[in-house]
Automatic annotation (TrEMBL):
Pfam families: OsmC (PF02566). InterPro entries: KH_dom-like_a/b, OsmC/Ohr_fam, OsmC/Ohrsf. Gene3D superfamilies: 3.30.300.20. This is OsmC-like protein. SUPFAM superfamilies: OsmC-like.
Length: 149
C-alpha cells in the first residue's frame, strides 16, 4: 500500500495547512486544519476534513465493510449499514484516540440480531485492521440496531 501526501497539493488549499493525499489506488483526498486565530501560521482554512477525522472515517469504513461482507456471506438480506462514530482524544500530545464508540444501524429483511452482533464482533476481533490498531490506545465500544425493511 502506498500514499503520497503533499502540502498544498495544487487544489486551491493555499499555503496554510492544507494537504492532499494521493493514494496508491489512484484517488485524491484533501485534508486541512482548523483555523487558529492565535497563531494563523499554524492553522488551516477549514477547507477539508482534519487528518484525524479521516482516521476515524477510515475506521468506520473498514468495520462497516466487514459487517456487510460477513452478513452477506451468511446469506442475510442486508440492505444498508451505517456506523456512527464518536471519539475522544487525549488532552496532551500526542492526542491519540482514547475512547471510540461505534453505533451500527443495519437495515435488511429478517436479519437476526445475533448475526449482527457476531459480524461486529468478528470485525473488531479479527478483520478490521483499523479498529484493531486503534484498540491499542483507545477503548472501543459498540452498539447496534437492526431496522427491518
Amino acid at each position: 500500500m502506498e500514499c503520497t501526501v503533499a502540502w498544498g497539493g495544487g487544489l486551491g488549499l493555499g499555503t496554510g495547512m492544507g494537504f492532499v493525499a494521493r493514494t496508491g489506488s489512484g484517488h485524491v483526498v484533501a485534508m486541512d486544519g482548523a483555523p487558529d486565530a492565535q497563531r494563523p501560521e499554524h492553522g488551516g482554512a477549514n477547507l477539508a476534513p482534519r487528518p484525524m477525522e479521516l482516521v476515524l472515517a477510515g475506521t468506520g469504513g473498514c468495520t462497516a465493510y466487514d459487517v456487510v461482507l460477513i452478513l452477506r456471506r451468511g446469506r442475510h438480506d442486508v440492505r444498508g449499514c451505517q456506523v456512527q462514530l464518536k471519539a475522544e482524544r487525549a488532552e496532551t500530545d500526542p492526542k491519540v484516540f482514547t475512547r471510540i464508540h461505534m453505533h451500527f444501524v443495519v437495515q435488511g429483511r429478517g436479519i437476526p440480531e445475533a448475526a449482527v452482533a457476531r459480524a461486529i464482533e468478528l470485525s473488531h476481533e479479527k478483520y478490521c485492521s483499523a479498529s484493531i490498531m486503534l484498540g491499542k490506545t483507545a477503548e472501543i465500544t459498540t452498539s447496534f440496531e437492526v431496522v427491518e425493511g
